[in-house]
Each structure stands twice: as C-alpha cells, then as structure tokens.
Design goal:
heterodimer; A: 319 residues; Ferritin; two-stranded antiparallel ribbon; 2 strands; B: mainly alpha; 0% strand; oxidoreductase (chain A); PaaA (chain A); 1,2-phenylacetyl-CoA epoxidase subunit A (chain A); Ferritin-like_SF (chain A)
C-alpha cells in the first residue's frame, strides 16, 4: 500500500476494510496508532503474565512430590518461559523493545494477570492452576488465535497447543488428589475454593463495564466478549469438577435449561480491584522477584555484551 | 559388600549426582539473569532429572528390595546419599552456578563417554542417551565461564571467586574406592582417576580463554561415597522430600 500519499481517514478506512475482510495485519502494514498501542499493552501484559506466572509454580518445583511430577512441572514452567519469549518477540514487531517492556513491568506501568498475586499454598494449587487458570487462559487464547494482528494470532496458535497439555496435567493432579487420602481431598477442595473466583475474574469486567472492549472488537483484536468467554469456561468446567467429586464454591451455580448455560453467582469485583491495586498476598513478592532477577542479572548481561564486543574487535584485528 | 550391593551403590552415585544438581538448578526457576537462561537452566535441570529417574529406577531394580525411583529420592536421609559434594553446594550467584556446572559437566562428559561401552548394557544405553545432553550442557557452561571470565571487570572477579571457592570439591570427583575398583574390574564402571588428566587439559583451555587463573590445589574435601556431606544437603532434602514424608500414605 502506498501509505505516504494517502490521507489518514483513507488509511484508516482501508485498514478497517482489511480487518473486516478477515485479513491479517502484519508488522509493516499501516495501522492506527491506537491499534498499535492497544496491542502493545495487551501483548506485553500477556508476556509478563507468562513470566510472572513462572513464580507461583516455581514455588513448588523444588517440593514436587514425585520425580515424575517434578519433571512435568519443570517442562511446563519451561514452556511458559518460552511463551513469554515468543510473546515479547511478537510485541517487538510493534516497535517496542523487551527492555522497555521490562521497565514498564518493573515500574508498575504495565500489568500482568492478577491471578498470579495469589499464593500457592499446597501441591493441590499446582493442580488448580493447571486445571483452572490454564483452562481459562485457553478459552481466552483460542479466541485470540483469530486476532487481526498476524504475529499475535500465530503466537497464540502455537501457545494453545502447549496450554492444553498444561491443563491436562493440572486436571490429572486434581484427579489423583481427589481420589487420594482424606488430607489430599481436603487440599484439592481447598485449592478449588481459593482459585475458583479469581479464575472467573481472569476474563475481565462485565461487558457493560469493559473500557476497551468495543474498539477491540471492531478491530478484531478481541473476538468474543468477556462475559461470553467466562460463560464458556464455566460451562466446560462444572462437569469436570463434578467428575472429580469436588464442590464449586458458588451456591447460585445451577444449570439453566432455558439458556442452555450454567447460572452463577456475582463476582466480588471489590476483591478484584483490591488485588489489582496491590492488596493481594503476593503482589510485592512477585514484582520484587522479577526486579531482583533483572537487576541482579545486569552484570551477567553486561559481561555477555562486553565479551561479544571483545570477540568482535579481535576478529577485526585479525582480519 | 556383595557384587549386587556394589552395583546398586555405583548406580546410586550416578543417579544422585544428576538428581541433586537438577534440584539445585530448579531453584533458579524464574530468577535467572535473563529469560533465555531461565529456559536453558530448566532445560539442563530437566535433562539431569531424566537421567536421575532412569538411573535410580535401575538402581532400585538391581537392589531388589522393591524401592523405586521415588522411594530412593524421597525416603533416604543425608547419610544414605551418594552425590558428589560439589553438586549439593548452594547456587550462589550465576558465576558460582556456572563454575559448579562446568566442573561437573566436563567430568560427567568423560565419565558417561566411558560408560557408553559398559558391559552393563542398560547402563550403557542410559549413558549414550545422556551423553548427547551432556555435550550440550558442557558447551553451555563452557561458553558462560568464558564470557564471564573475559567479560567485564566485575564478571571476571566474580567468576574467579567462584572458581576459587569450588576448586577444593574437584579432587573428590576423581577418587576411586572399593566399589569403583570392583565396577571397573567387572567392566561396568569407569576408572575416574584416569580421567583427571583430560579434565585438566579441558579446564585449562577454558581458563586460558576466560583469562582465569587456575587455583592452587591448597584444599580438598571428600566423603560423599561414605555418606559424609556438607550441611547444605540436609536442607535441600528437607525441602525436596517434604510432601512424601509429611503424607507417607498418599500417592501423588
């Protein structure tokens, strides 16, 4: 497209026509500045969530109860680091560097999924994270596989494949514990009690209160509404909990024949806002751990750069 | 000691080495100096854990008392562990972790290369599979020791300090005792004492490129083959073994 000679309105109209025609927007294509900013916000938040999400699971990696579980969890956490890397690279196509994104995370300007501000207190929490948190992430990410921005959509397709393995391993942990000793069953139920509502919050505010939704839908960054995705997750998960013999902590949860969906109770958005605003049990630890890793690793990164420069200089000298 | 007991003990040493170092690397998860290293360290940890599982499962079978990999991993106390002292040392900074890794990778590379022709075919198979991984581990730790040694002033100092502080754990790797002798005689094991010359050549080359000084052989500690460990191992085990110990009737 010959962008230079066109008026902004014409460019925007051509862009929207392309989106409407279900064509992917690629890094070199013209795009509205707000589209770019929205994607940077969303993709970097997604990448940060993958990386911060390594911490609550890493909390149990050294205490996994069997060598097989340890190996599976290690592979899963490694996948998540890989997803982070992949998403940072995809976000970089929008003209922001990984260092800038880290800076925004460490200063609090950029967010990560607030679910990771909850603590992992028992091994069952590792099961619950895989089953519920990754389960919710899959529902969100499947929708994103059709996102209008090409690099993001392609990243999502790849990531979804691995996420379904993550969810299965989580469900398997829950299954083993739900069928285990009395103490294990209690741990499993307790984990479900603590993770259920925060997981539902992962889908974001109700559609009527969602600030960015309308524009994102129009740009096809977002393909389905928060409430639709949440309902989809609940409908899929309730039978899974029943199969485990665990009780979902919601008295209002009930199959609605007419709607063909489960009805459920009201989410405590006060708690959501409170945790987002810093009052979760782990907000400070999670962020501090990332800042410490980054700051503590600066000398290593500087050494790598210095060594590469020396090597290059020697090569030039020898030539 | 019977041949069977010695065979068991020999496999246990190999498996414990891999498991304890893998456990230490798992502690880095989410805290590495860069995301790429988070991936690399968990990758290496996973390889080591895989080796440990094969070796401990096999050790349990050779012992014949019904102990599987988890029984051996989670229900032995400090004195029953046979891992090298080097491997239970705390991670320290990234330079420490890389010095520990290089010393062991260079050793394990030679040891497992030898084990590939073990008369114990199952062990030879495990060694052959693992050697591919170890080749990558050794390249990774070698590259980092060189980068840090010949990087900035700060990284050079840190790297030298790490090498100095771990040097006394090196000689133990090359010790031979009655179990090692018997396993060499049976064609199962490797004469590790004979590996020292090649190890020194490799390490000296790395040190030269990294502009690091080879420490003097002024101290050495040993004892892991008789279950004598540093105090660090007890804490590592307390953390690793917590769940199966706290809930002995549970399956996970």
């Amino acid at each position: 497209m010959d962008a230079i000679n066109k008026e902004p309105e014409a460019l925007e109209a051509a862009f929207q026509a392309k989106v409407d025609a279900e064509q992917r927007i690629e890094p070199k294509d013209w795009m509205p500045e707000k589209y770019r900013q929205t994607l940077i916000r969303q993709m970097s938040q997604h990448a940060h969530s993958e990386v911060v999400g390594m911490l609550p699971e890493g909390n149990w990696l050294t205490r996994a109860p069997s060598l097989k579980r340890k190996a599976i969890l290690m592979a899963k956490i490694q996948d998540e680091g890989g997803h982070g890397l992949y998403l940072y690279s995809a976000a970089e196509t929008l003209g922001i560097s990984r260092d800038e994104m880290f800076e925004q995370l460490h200063s609090g300007k950029a967010k990560y999924s607030t679910i990771f501000n909850y603590p992992t207190l028992s091994w069952a929490d590792i099961g619950a994270i895989g089953w519920l948190v990754d389960g919710a992430a899959i529902v969100n990410q499947i929708a994103l596989c059709r996102c209008s921005y090409g690099p993001y959509a392609r990243a999502m397709i790849r990531i979804c494949k691995e996420e379904s393995f993550h969810q299965r391993q989580g469900y398997e942990i829950m299954m083993t514990m739900a069928q285990g000793t009395k103490e294990q069953r209690e741990m499993a139920q307790d984990a479900l009690n603590r993770w259920w509502w925060p997981t539902l919050m992962m889908f974001g505010p109700h559609d009527r209160e969602s600030a960015h939704s309308g524009q994102s839908m129009k740009w096809k960054i977002k393909r389905q509404s928060n409430d639709d995705l949440r309902q989809k997750f609940i409908d899929a998960t309730v039978p899974q909990a029943e199969f485990l013999g665990l009780r979902i902590p919601d008295d209002k949860l009930k199959w609605n024949e007419e709607r063909g969906h489960y009805d459920f109770g009201e989410i405590d958005w006060e708690e959501f806002r409170s945790v987002v605003n810093g009052n979760g049990l782990c907000n400070r630890e999670r962020l501090q751990a990332r800042v410490d890793a980054h700051d503590g690793g600066r000398w290593v990164r500087e050494a790598a750069l210095a060594h590469a420069a020396k090597k290059e200089a020697r090569k030039v000298e020898a030539a | 000691m019977t041949d069977q007991k010695m065979h068991f003990d020999y496999l246990l040493r190999l498996g414990d080495n891999s498991l304890i170092l893998g456990q230490r690397l798992a502690e880095w998860c989410g805290h590495a100096p860069m995301l790429e290293e988070d991936l690399a360290l968990t990758n290496i940890g996973l390889d080591l854990l895989g080796q440990a599982r094969m070796l401990l499962a096999y050790a349990g079978e050779v012992e014949g008392k019904g102990r599987d990999e988890d029984r051996l991993a989670f229900h032995r106390d400090t004195m029953a562990w046979r891992n090298l002292l080097l491997l239970e040392q705390p991670n320290g900074d990234f330079a420490h972790t890389m010095a520990r890794q290089l010393f062991f990778d260079a050793f394990q590379y030679q040891q497992f290369a030898g084990l590939c022709s073990s008369s114990d075919e199952r062990l030879a198979g495990i060694a052959a599979k693992s050697l591919k991984e170890i080749t990558y581990h050794r390249r990774h730790s070698t590259d980092w020791v060189i980068r840090l040694g010949d990087g900035t002033e700060e990284s050079h100092e840190r790297m030298q300090r790490a090498v100095d502080s771990l040097w006394g754990y090196v000689p133990e790797m090359f010790d031979m005792d009655a179990v090692d002798d018997a396993m060499v005689a049976a064609g199962i094991g490797v004469d590790v004492a004979a590996l020292r010359g090649e190890w020194d050549r490799y390490i000296d080359e790395v040190f030269a490129e990294a502009t690091l000084s080879r420490p003097e052989d002024s101290w050495s500690v040993r004892g892991s083959r008789e279950g004598k460990h540093s105090e660090h191992l007890g804490y590592l085990l307390a953390e690793m073994q917590f769940l199966p110990r706290a809930y002995p009737d549970a399956k996970w």
